[in-house]
Write the C-alpha coordinates for this entry.
Amino acid sequence: DPKIIQKPKYLVAVTGSEKILICEQYLGHNAMYWYRQSAKKPLEFMFSYSYQKLMDNQTASSRFQPQSSKKNHLDLQITALKPDDSATYFCASSQDHSYEQYFGPGTRLTVL
Amino acid sequence: GQGVEQPDNLMSVEGTFARVNCTYSTSGFNGLSWYQQREGHAPVFLSYVVLDGLKDSGHFSTFLSRSNGYSYLLLTELQIKDSASYLCAVREGDNYAQGLTFGLGTRVSVFP
Protein backbone atom coordinates (compact mmCIF):
# COMPACT_ATOMS: atom_id res chain seq x y z
CA ASP A 1 0.00 0.00 0.00
CA PRO A 2 1.33 3.45 -0.82
CA LYS A 3 2.43 5.30 2.28
CA ILE A 4 2.37 8.77 0.74
CA ILE A 5 -0.48 9.53 -1.63
CA GLN A 6 -0.39 12.43 -4.06
CA LYS A 7 -3.33 13.36 -6.23
CA PRO A 8 -3.66 13.76 -9.10
CA LYS A 9 -0.75 11.99 -10.76
CA TYR A 10 -1.00 14.22 -13.84
CA LEU A 11 -2.57 17.66 -14.09
CA VAL A 12 -3.00 19.97 -17.07
CA ALA A 13 -4.04 23.56 -16.44
CA VAL A 14 -4.43 26.76 -18.41
CA THR A 15 -2.49 29.92 -17.68
CA GLY A 16 -4.18 32.05 -15.03
CA SER A 17 -6.14 29.22 -13.45
CA GLU A 18 -5.88 27.81 -9.92
CA LYS A 19 -5.19 24.23 -8.85
CA ILE A 20 -4.77 22.29 -5.62
CA LEU A 21 -2.30 19.44 -5.28
CA ILE A 22 -3.21 16.88 -2.64
CA CYS A 23 -0.82 15.05 -0.32
CA GLU A 24 -1.61 12.55 2.43
CA GLN A 25 0.94 10.49 4.34
CA TYR A 26 0.26 7.35 6.37
CA LEU A 27 3.70 6.90 7.88
CA GLY A 28 2.80 8.56 11.18
CA HIS A 29 5.25 11.38 10.50
CA ASN A 30 4.94 14.84 11.99
CA ALA A 31 6.85 16.85 9.40
CA MET A 32 5.78 17.30 5.80
CA TYR A 33 7.39 19.08 2.86
CA TRP A 34 6.81 20.24 -0.70
CA TYR A 35 9.50 20.15 -3.36
CA ARG A 36 9.43 21.01 -7.06
CA GLN A 37 11.47 19.43 -9.84
CA SER A 38 11.70 21.01 -13.29
CA ALA A 39 13.66 19.84 -16.30
CA LYS A 40 17.38 20.59 -15.99
CA LYS A 41 16.93 22.02 -12.49
CA PRO A 42 17.66 20.48 -9.09
CA LEU A 43 14.91 19.33 -6.81
CA GLU A 44 13.88 22.59 -5.14
CA PHE A 45 12.57 22.86 -1.58
CA MET A 46 9.42 24.96 -1.20
CA PHE A 47 7.81 24.54 2.26
CA SER A 48 7.97 22.47 5.40
CA TYR A 49 5.35 21.95 8.09
CA SER A 50 5.53 20.30 11.47
CA TYR A 51 2.43 19.58 13.56
CA GLN A 52 0.51 21.67 11.02
CA LYS A 53 2.70 24.74 11.57
CA LEU A 54 4.88 26.34 8.92
CA MET A 55 8.54 25.67 9.72
CA ASP A 56 10.37 26.86 6.63
CA ASN A 57 9.36 28.70 3.48
CA GLN A 58 11.74 29.10 0.53
CA THR A 59 9.12 30.06 -2.03
CA ALA A 60 9.25 33.71 -2.98
CA SER A 61 5.85 33.83 -4.64
CA SER A 62 2.63 34.14 -2.63
CA ARG A 63 0.87 32.28 -5.45
CA PHE A 64 1.95 29.10 -3.72
CA GLN A 65 0.05 28.45 -0.49
CA PRO A 66 0.32 25.24 1.56
CA GLN A 67 -2.78 24.10 3.42
CA SER A 68 -2.78 21.62 6.29
CA SER A 69 -6.22 20.47 7.48
CA LYS A 70 -4.83 17.47 9.39
CA LYS A 71 -1.42 16.46 10.70
CA ASN A 72 -0.99 13.95 7.88
CA HIS A 73 -2.26 16.24 5.10
CA LEU A 74 -0.37 19.00 3.34
CA ASP A 75 -2.00 20.30 0.19
CA LEU A 76 -0.51 22.91 -2.13
CA GLN A 77 -2.71 25.59 -3.68
CA ILE A 78 -1.28 27.37 -6.71
CA THR A 79 -3.06 30.45 -8.06
CA ALA A 80 -2.61 32.47 -11.26
CA LEU A 81 -0.76 29.58 -12.89
CA LYS A 82 2.06 30.33 -15.33
CA PRO A 83 3.77 28.07 -17.89
CA ASP A 84 6.95 28.32 -15.75
CA ASP A 85 5.07 26.54 -12.96
CA SER A 86 5.14 23.37 -15.08
CA ALA A 87 7.08 20.81 -13.04
CA THR A 88 6.71 17.68 -10.98
CA TYR A 89 5.70 18.54 -7.43
CA PHE A 90 6.81 16.10 -4.75
CA CYS A 91 5.43 15.84 -1.26
CA ALA A 92 7.70 14.34 1.42
CA SER A 93 7.54 13.54 5.12
CA SER A 94 9.86 12.72 8.01
CA GLN A 95 9.63 11.65 11.62
CA ASP A 96 10.60 13.89 14.53
CA HIS A 97 14.37 14.24 14.83
CA SER A 98 14.95 12.04 11.78
CA TYR A 99 16.79 13.42 8.79
CA GLU A 100 15.42 10.75 6.45
CA GLN A 101 12.76 12.20 4.19
CA TYR A 102 10.34 9.93 2.33
CA PHE A 103 8.98 11.20 -0.98
CA GLY A 104 5.57 10.67 -2.54
CA PRO A 105 5.16 9.68 -6.20
CA GLY A 106 4.70 13.26 -7.37
CA THR A 107 2.15 15.26 -9.34
CA ARG A 108 3.24 16.27 -12.82
CA LEU A 109 1.75 19.68 -13.59
CA THR A 110 1.67 21.12 -17.09
CA VAL A 111 0.51 24.70 -17.58
CA LEU A 112 -0.50 25.64 -21.12
CA GLY B 1 29.32 29.91 -5.65
CA GLN B 2 26.71 28.60 -3.25
CA GLY B 3 25.06 25.28 -3.88
CA VAL B 4 25.55 21.58 -4.41
CA GLU B 5 27.48 20.36 -7.44
CA GLN B 6 27.59 16.93 -9.04
CA PRO B 7 28.87 15.62 -12.38
CA ASP B 8 26.12 15.12 -14.92
CA ASN B 9 26.88 11.57 -16.00
CA LEU B 10 28.91 8.53 -15.06
CA MET B 11 29.28 5.26 -16.95
CA SER B 12 30.50 2.00 -15.53
CA VAL B 13 30.49 -1.74 -16.12
CA GLU B 14 28.42 -4.41 -14.40
CA GLY B 15 30.33 -6.06 -11.55
CA THR B 16 32.67 -3.11 -11.01
CA PHE B 17 32.12 0.06 -9.00
CA ALA B 18 31.06 3.66 -9.48
CA ARG B 19 31.94 6.68 -7.36
CA VAL B 20 29.54 9.62 -7.50
CA ASN B 21 31.14 12.85 -6.32
CA CYS B 22 29.43 15.79 -4.64
CA THR B 23 30.84 19.14 -3.60
CA TYR B 24 28.92 21.71 -1.66
CA SER B 25 29.23 25.29 -0.57
CA THR B 26 26.33 26.27 1.64
CA SER B 27 25.60 28.83 4.33
CA GLY B 28 25.41 26.08 6.95
CA PHE B 29 25.95 22.34 7.20
CA ASN B 30 24.08 19.84 9.34
CA GLY B 31 24.38 16.66 7.32
CA LEU B 32 24.33 15.32 3.79
CA SER B 33 21.95 12.78 2.27
CA TRP B 34 22.07 10.64 -0.85
CA TYR B 35 18.98 9.66 -2.80
CA GLN B 36 18.40 7.40 -5.79
CA GLN B 37 15.91 8.55 -8.40
CA ARG B 38 14.75 6.53 -11.39
CA GLU B 39 13.23 8.22 -14.41
CA GLY B 40 9.66 9.23 -13.71
CA HIS B 41 9.80 8.19 -10.06
CA ALA B 42 10.32 9.77 -6.67
CA PRO B 43 13.70 10.04 -4.94
CA VAL B 44 14.44 7.16 -2.58
CA PHE B 45 16.59 7.70 0.51
CA LEU B 46 19.91 5.83 0.56
CA SER B 47 22.17 7.32 3.21
CA TYR B 48 22.76 10.21 5.61
CA VAL B 49 26.16 11.33 6.91
CA VAL B 50 27.13 14.13 9.25
CA LEU B 51 30.54 13.02 10.55
CA ASP B 52 33.76 12.86 8.55
CA GLY B 53 34.88 9.53 7.22
CA LEU B 54 33.54 6.51 5.42
CA LYS B 55 30.18 4.96 6.26
CA ASP B 56 29.95 1.44 4.86
CA SER B 57 26.41 0.25 4.16
CA GLY B 58 27.27 -2.73 1.97
CA HIS B 59 26.22 -2.10 -1.62
CA PHE B 60 26.26 1.67 -0.96
CA SER B 61 29.00 3.44 1.01
CA THR B 62 29.33 7.16 1.64
CA PHE B 63 32.28 9.37 2.48
CA LEU B 64 32.27 12.87 3.91
CA SER B 65 34.95 15.53 4.35
CA ARG B 66 33.40 18.61 5.92
CA SER B 67 36.57 20.68 5.72
CA ASN B 68 36.64 20.16 1.95
CA GLY B 69 32.90 20.39 1.39
CA TYR B 70 33.04 17.02 -0.32
CA SER B 71 31.20 13.72 -0.28
CA TYR B 72 31.00 10.69 -2.48
CA LEU B 73 28.64 7.76 -2.87
CA LEU B 74 30.36 4.50 -3.73
CA LEU B 75 28.35 1.79 -5.43
CA THR B 76 30.10 -1.58 -5.44
CA GLU B 77 29.41 -4.79 -7.38
CA LEU B 78 27.32 -2.82 -9.83
CA GLN B 79 24.21 -4.34 -11.33
CA ILE B 80 22.31 -3.16 -14.38
CA LYS B 81 19.43 -2.16 -12.10
CA ASP B 82 21.71 0.37 -10.35
CA SER B 83 21.33 2.55 -13.44
CA ALA B 84 19.58 5.65 -12.11
CA SER B 85 20.22 9.22 -11.05
CA TYR B 86 21.88 9.75 -7.69
CA LEU B 87 21.11 12.98 -5.86
CA CYS B 88 23.23 14.64 -3.21
CA ALA B 89 21.39 16.89 -0.72
CA VAL B 90 22.66 19.11 2.08
CA ARG B 91 20.81 20.07 5.24
CA GLU B 92 21.92 23.61 6.06
CA GLY B 93 20.22 24.19 9.40
CA ASP B 94 19.62 22.22 12.59
CA ASN B 95 15.84 22.29 12.45
CA TYR B 96 14.67 18.73 11.82
CA ALA B 97 11.92 20.02 9.53
CA GLN B 98 14.49 21.79 7.38
CA GLY B 99 14.28 21.59 3.63
CA LEU B 100 17.19 20.07 1.77
CA THR B 101 19.38 21.72 -0.87
CA PHE B 102 19.78 19.27 -3.73
CA GLY B 103 22.32 18.90 -6.49
CA LEU B 104 21.19 18.30 -10.05
CA GLY B 105 22.02 14.62 -9.75
CA THR B 106 24.43 12.27 -11.49
CA ARG B 107 23.03 9.86 -14.01
CA VAL B 108 24.81 6.53 -13.58
CA SER B 109 24.64 4.11 -16.49
CA VAL B 110 25.74 0.54 -15.89
CA PHE B 111 26.61 -1.52 -18.97
CA PRO B 112 27.03 -5.30 -19.33
Observations:
- Chain A touches chain B through 30 residues (CB under 8 Å).
